[in-house]
Amino acid sequence: MCSIDTFKIDLKALPQDETVMQYKLNDDYFKAIDASDVQRGELCVDLSIRRTDDFFELNFHTEGVVHIPCDLCLDDMEQPISSDNRIVAKFGEDYSEDDDLVTVAEEEGILDVTWLIYQFIVLNIPIKHVHAPGKCNPAMIKMLEEHSVARSDEEEEEDTIDPRWAALLKLKDKK
Ligand SMILES: [Zn+2]
Question: What global pTM score does this model have?
Fold first, then answer.
């Protein structure tokens, strides 16, 4: 695993035309950035940077899996990630982000892609993510089912049987 420092790209030092970089992300990356949504994963990022004078076009291709809790059973599941993202960087006075345009403080000339890559990954996770059918934690699913059955029984009793009737029925049963 390359250190997190390599995510800081010295734009001024880049040659004109194309530079290609590759990052391997693993659990250490997620630990290092202390991210909340994703804590584990193995991904590969191919980055090509095309420099034309002081404009930089960056194309990211991110592919791999992240381990995130399943919406249904809460056990970790593998979520495949495949994302293509393009941003343009230029120099300015201060750092700023505006959609896919990033302005880098010219004095430093450093573009840190650590969080950009993290954002690409998070945006690629579907809102609803669950295990493949039958792959959920069976104990958890059983508990969920029992809970929902118990709840619907309660509701049914409340809906259909008046408590006074219930009392009468009990008396009747005793006879
Ligand atoms: Zn599940």
Answer: 0.79
